[in-house]
Amino acid sequence: MNYLWILLCISFAISAVGWIYFIYFFSVGYGFAISALAVASAIIFRDVLTLPAVILCAVLFIYGIRLAMFLLLREKRSASYKKILYQPDNTKKKPLFAMFMIWISCALLYVGQVSPVTFHLYNMAHGLPVSEGWMWVGAIVAAIGVVIEMVADAQKNSAKKVDPHRYVDTGLYRIVRCPNYFGEVLMWTGSFLICFGSCCTVGQWIIASLGYVGIVYVMFSGARRLELRQTEVYGSDPAFQAYIKRTPLIIPLVPIYSVAKFSWLKG
Question: Are 135 and 50 in contact (CB under 8 A)?
Fold first, then answer.
């Protein structure tokens, strides 16, 4: 289990950027931590790396680096994002105990998210009959998720350049209101799927499941915050009301149009 302690130390070290600014626990620290954990997993188990495992680790690395850099650049260039990022709730001093608990929770979550590929490689290194097929499925699904997220972000950026004061309902946003969140959910679903062919122990299943459920919760929580913010800004627009009534919030074809009333999603 030494490999898990190594990954946990890496996660703690990188997510500690949140001590500089609270939100960085969940944003910049998150992105860099995922990238570092993917690379660390590949290095630790380099002797048993297969092509799909390399692809999945690369997907996670690219995702994390891209996310962290995207957020840093947006913070630097976007006045509206800065306003949201540095709102009073985010800038007020947090109790020391609360900061430690958030740091611990984030570090554990990030390890849990990356753990499926780590467990697959660990079990392979110990001679267990892991499935290469499930690794390929996971890597492909995860890669598709990252592509969807990247396209969604690019489409939103282009639309906001045309009209920064209008909600986005073009491209992938015609299908779902939060395609970037959907892409991330799909990516982590792909990562989690490999557990089915990795001969995971009960403990490994628990860690991987907590990581997966945790990030899905975070995505729906983020979608809820976006829904509330958009309702505040565009709620009086009849076209916006029509758009949100016909377009699912985060999962295409799944008729979940609002989670605003789900206070348990507050995060």
Answer: yes
Helix axes 132-162 and 51-77, enclosed angle (nearest 10) = 20
Q: Which residue has the tokens 């489409």?
A: 155
Tens of pLDDT, residues 11-56: 999 999 999 888 889 999 999 999 999 999 999 999 999 999 999 9
Q: Provide the whole-model pTM.
A: 0.92
Average pLDDT, integer, range 162-172: 92
In this structure, are residues 144 and 186 in contact, taking their beta carbons and an 8 Å threshold?
yes
181 contacts 256 by C-beta, under 8 angstroms? no
**CA distance linking residue 243 with residue 79, whole number of Å:** 26
Q: At 124, which helix (H) or strand (E)? A: helix 96-125
Task: Return all residues near 243 (Cβ < 8 A) that are at least 6 apart.
Answer: 167, 169, 177
What type of residue sits at position 203? Answer: G
Closest CA to 18 of 76, 71, 59: 71
Per-residue pLDDT, 138: 97
Q: Return the ∠ at Cα 61 (arms to 69 and 52), rounded to 5°.
A: 155
Half-sphere exposure of 162 (CA within 13 A, CB side): 10
CA distances from 185 to 70, 85, 136, 142, 203 (A): 18, 23, 18, 9, 23
Torsion of CA 135, 136, 141, 147, to 10 degrees: 120
In this prediction, residue 133 has a pLDDT band, given cuts at 50, 70 and 90, of very high
Give the residue from 165, 170, 143, 166 showing the smallest Cα distance to 154.
Answer: 170
- Using an 8 Å Cβ cutoff, are 67 and 30 in contact? yes
